[in-house]
Specification:
about 90 residues; alpha+beta; 4-stranded antiparallel beta sheet
């Protein structure tokens, strides 16, 4: 498994909202274990946390590159880490 933690660009809320439906459909058709927005000031969406059940970093990177949010240029940065599920 791999965890993806992304940070939105400043002023990215409009990009997020405009691409939300495509992003959610992409998640539904993917090996996603857990997903949700990261919240910033005033609980505004400011990034994403996604846990993928894939075997390799290359698969996680490929998945991340095809995310409609990434294609729309929403993220300032994306961090991908190998993840071991222990609880839940």
């Amino acid at each position: 498994m791999f965890a993806l933690m992304s940070t939105d660009k400043d002023g990215g809320l409009e990009i997020r909202i405009a691409n939300r439906e495509k992003h959610l459909a992409y998640l539904e058709a993917s090996p996603v274990v857990l997903a949700g927005p990261l919240l910033g000031k005033n609980d505004e969406m400011s990034g994403s946390l996604i846990v993928l059940d894939v075997a390799t970093r290359a698969e996680a990177e490929a998945w991340a590159a095809e995310d409609p949010y990434a294609k729309a240029g929403l993220f300032a940065k994306v961090r991908i880490e190998h993840f071991k599920k222990v609880i839940g």
